[in-house]
Write a structure and sequence with these properties.
13 strands, seven-stranded antiparallel beta sheet, alpha+beta
């Protein structure tokens, strides 16, 4: 069995710690089945959710931007996305207005009528997407620790859904997203860490843990990921613990996080408008470590 890196840990595919995501493409047109699957698994992984060619066109927008920033290795084909020796990741968080000049194809994909109609069907009413989007390019060694999204965007309805979209064929070695199966039912964590607000509580990173094995050993569950293809998407709620494998390649992993909810429900004001204010207070005071916060919470 093959081994992959997640933080400082090695996880073996097919072990008690790491398994494959379940694909829901076969039930894509069955709204009732989708809702039941989302409730059961905590996520919907859908192959071919977006148009593949349009996704690859958007990837070139990001690569051209990286090249203009000096982050593509000189003398290498742009389409390979080879990381320059400085190995700097990039994040382009901003509103539709702020991103439209550089990334129109990207915005066309994540705001596409097909995407909005899917969420309207899934959620049972007119849907909206946060104006703020989170596209990023992850360099060699980069990864994300385990966290709930609610700690970053919990001031409106709790029924917000993240759509993670890869803008390339992404092998596990390139740093795929991973879901922690069963974590939507971690009652004590939801009642403590899940009530945190990074702008209010000033907890460093906002991650619950950087040790994927410690969480499984303590609270149960299993990490699940897969090799993604351009056009795939994975959708999950605010209380689904997730993280990423490390990018162990010399190529950028380009992906985005976008959020969707019912238009009729309260919205977190930090992420809407022409110029969303985003995290306006996080880091403005001395930061508490997650370890300190977990001790206080008893988790």
């Amino acid at each position: 069995m093959k081994t992959y890196t997640m933080g400082s840990r090695q996880l073996e595919m097919g072990s008690r710690y790491l398994t494959e995501l379940r694909c829901s493409k076969d039930i894509l047109q069955d709204t009732k089945a989708l809702r039941e699957r989302l409730q059961e698994d905590g996520y919907l992984f859908i192959r071919g959710f977006h148009n593949r060619e349009e996704v690859l066109q958007a990837r070139m927008e990001f690569l051209r931007k990286l090249e203009s920033m000096g982050r593509i290795a000189p003398g290498t084909p742009l389409e390979q996305g080879v990381i320059a020796k400085e190995n700097k990741s990039a994040m382009w968080g901003g509103s539709t207005d702020q991103l439209s000049a550089d990334f129109p194809q990207f915005l066309s994909i994540v705001n596409h009528p097909n995407v909005m109609s899917f969420f309207e069907r899934l959620l049972g009413g007119p849907a909206m997407t946060y104006d703020f989007k989170w596209p990023r390019a992850i360099g060699h060694g980069g990864n994300t620790g385990a966290h709930y999204d609610i700690v970053y965007m919990g001031r409106g309805t709790k029924q917000v859904y993240t759509m993670w979209t890869p803008f390339d064929d992404v092998s596990l070695e390139k740093g795929t997203l991973a879901m922690l199966l069963g974590s939507q039912h971690y009652a004590k964590i939801k009642e403590t860490y899940g009530e945190m607000d990074v702008d209010r509580d000033h907890v460093a990173t906002g991650w619950f843990s950087e040790d994927p094995i410690e969480i499984v050993d303590t609270y149960g569950g299993q990490w699940a990921t897969t090799a993604f293809e351009a056009g795939d998407a994975i959708i999950f709620g605010m209380f689904m613990m997730h993280a990423s494998l490390n990018n162990s390649t010399n190529q950028y992993r380009i992906s985005s996080d976008t959020r969707y909810q019912l238009a009729s429900e309260p919205v977190d004001e930090r992420w809407i408008g022409q110029k969303p204010k985003g995290h306006y207070a996080w880091g403005s005071k001395p930061m508490k470590s997650v370890e300190e916060a977990r001790q206080e919470w008893g988790v």
